[in-house]
Structure to design on (430 residues):
C-alpha cells in the first residue's frame, strides 16, 4: 500500500517537474491569491494554476470566476503587492511562476526569458518572436483597485482601473505607471486586480490566429499604496463605470473612472461583446496607456491652524478711507470741546456784563473749504486738521485775553462802588 507523501517531499517533487505552459498568462506577485498554488501549506514554485483562462464554455458563475477561482488561497500574512504612488510598478507576466524571479531560489542564477512563455502559442497573439511589437495586435491589460480590506465584502464592481499597459502580454517584464494622487490604503490594505483579454479575429502570414477567443483572466491581490502623500479625507476614487466601445469615435468613450471588463461568463458580466470582437483594455474602450488620472474626487480640507489673508472688499476699503478722513458735516472733537468751553465762558461773562462779546468763528465754513474733493483727500484732510488747530489755538488765546480784561474791569467797578458807598455812609452819619 502506498504511503502518502509528506509535504516536504511533495514540494520537492513539484519542484523537479518541468516548467509547463498553459494557454494564458498571469501577473505574478507575492501578494496574489493563489501565488503559492492551491495546496495549502505547500509552496509550488512550478505553479501554473492562476494562468488558466476563464472560458465561456465553462459557464462559470461570479463566485467561481471571481479572482480566477483562487480567492480561497490568500497570500502569506502581512504580504502585499506594493504599488508606488506617482512611480512605476515593475511586474512580471508569465505562463508559469517558475519563469519569473519568484521561481525556486536554488535556480535563481539561470537566465530568464525575455517573453512570458517559452513559445508564442500560449500568449494568444499572431506576432512572432523577433518581430517588431504592434500594440494593435495585443489586447492590453489593466491594474485595478478597491479600497476594501475585507475580502468577504469584495464585489467585481468595487474595482476601478488605475493603470494599463498596451503591450501587455508580449514582454515578461511589464511596467505599470501608478497615479500620484492615489491615497493610502486602510490599515488592512486594499485589494487590487489584474485583468487581461486577448485579441481575436486576426491571422498572420502563416495563417495562425489568436486561438480560442471567448475567455479572460481576473486575478486578485492584497495590495497597498506606498509613498502616498494623500489620505482618503483629501481624495477618493470615483466608482468605476462600464466602459463603452469607442474605436474610431472618441466622443463615445466613457470619461472618468472605469471598471475592468468582465466578459463571456455565465453571469456577472458588464460587457456583452461578441467572441470575435472582445472588449480590450486599450483606447478602443477609452483606456489611455499608462496611469489613469481622471478617476479622482477631490475634497477641500482646511487646516484650522492656518491663517488666511483676506483682501478687504471695496465697501470695507471705502469705509476705512472715510473713517480715516474728516467728514465735512461733523465737527472734530477738539474743536467741539473748544466751542462748548467758549460757550460756557460767554454765558458767564454775559451775566457779569462784559464790555465785549467774543464769538468763535464758525467751524463749518473752515471745514467746508478744507473738505476733500479729489483723490488727494487724505492730504487735504491733514491740511484741514492743521488749519483747525491753528484757528482753535488763536481763539483760545483771544478768549483768555478777553476774560482777563473782563475780570480786571469787574474788579475796578467793585473798588469804585466801595469807595463811593464809603464816602456816602460817612456823610450820612451811618
Amino acid at each position: 500500500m502506498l504511503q502518502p507523501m509528506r509535504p516536504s517531499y511533495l514540494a520537492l517533487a513539484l519542484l523537479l517537474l518541468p516548467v509547463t505552459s498553459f494557454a494564458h498568462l498571469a501577473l505574478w506577485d507575492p501578494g496574489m491569491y493563489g501565488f503559492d498554488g492551491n495546496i495549502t501549506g505547500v509552496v509550488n514554485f512550478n505553479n501554473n494554476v492562476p494562468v488558466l483562462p476563464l472560458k465561456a464554455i465553462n459557464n462559470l458563475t461570479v463566485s467561481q470566476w471571481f479572482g480566477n477561482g483562487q480567492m480561497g488561497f490568500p497570500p502569506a500574512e502581512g504580504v502585499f503587492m506594493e504599488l508606488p504612488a506617482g512611480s512605476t510598478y515593475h511586474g512580471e507576466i508569465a505562463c508559469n511562476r517558475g519563469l519569473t524571479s519568484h521561481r525556486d531560489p536554488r535556480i535563481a542564477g539561470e537566465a530568464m526569458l525575455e517573453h512570458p512563455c517559452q513559445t508564442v502559442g500560449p500568449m494568444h497573439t499572431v506576432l512572432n518572436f523577433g518581430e517588431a511589437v504592434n500594440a494593435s495586435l495585443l489586447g492590453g491589460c489593466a491594474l485595478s483597485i478597491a479600497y476594501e480590506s475585507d475580502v468577504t465584502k469584495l464585489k467585481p464592481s468595487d474595482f476601478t482601473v488605475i493603470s494599463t499597459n498596451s503591450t501587455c502580454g508580449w514582454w515578461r517584464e511589464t511596467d505599470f505607471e501608478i497615479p500620484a494622487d492615489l491615497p493610502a490604503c486602510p490599515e488592512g490594505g486594499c485589494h487590487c486586480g489584474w485583468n487581461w483579454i486577448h485579441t481575436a479575429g486576426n491571422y498572420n502570414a502563416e495563417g495562425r490566429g489568436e486561438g480560442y477567443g471567448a475567455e479572460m483572466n481576473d486575478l486578485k491581490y492584497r495590495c497597498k499604496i506606498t509613498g502616498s502623500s494623500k489620505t482618503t479625507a483629501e481624495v477618493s476614487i470615483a466608482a468605476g463605470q462600464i466602459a463603452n466601445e469607442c474605436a474610431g469615435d472618441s466622443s463615445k468613450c466613457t470619461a472618468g473612472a472605469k471598471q475592468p471588463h468582465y466578459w463571456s461568463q455565465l453571469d456577472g458580466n458588464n460587457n456583452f461583446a461578441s467572441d470575435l470582437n472582445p472588449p480590450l483594455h486599450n483606447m478602443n474602450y477609452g483606456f489611455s496607456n499608462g496611469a489613469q488620472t481622471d478617476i479622482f474626487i477631490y475634497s477641500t480640507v482646511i487646516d484650522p491652524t492656518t491663517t488666511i489673508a483676506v483682501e478687504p472688499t471695496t465697501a470695507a476699503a471705502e469705509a476705512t478711507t472715510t473713517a480715516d478722513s474728516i467728514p465735512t458735516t461733523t465737527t472734530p472733537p477738539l474743536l467741539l470741546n473748544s466751542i462748548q468751553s467758549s460757550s460756557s465762558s460767554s454765558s458767564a461773562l454775559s451775566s457779569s456784563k462784559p464790555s465785549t462779546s467774543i464769538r468763535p468763528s464758525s467751524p463749518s465754513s473752515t471745514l467746508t473749504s478744507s473738505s476733500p474733493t479729489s483723490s488727494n483727500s487724505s492730504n487735504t484732510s491733514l491740511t484741514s486738521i492743521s488749519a483747525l488747530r491753528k484757528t482753535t489755538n488763536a481763539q483760545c488765546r483771544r478768549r483768555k485775553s478777553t476774560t482777563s480784561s473782563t475780570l480786571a474791569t469787574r474788579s475796578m467797578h467793585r473798588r469804585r462802588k466801595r469807595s463811593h458807598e464809603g464816602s456816602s455812609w460817612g456823610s450820612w452819619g451811618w
Observations:
- The longest strand covers residues 215-226.
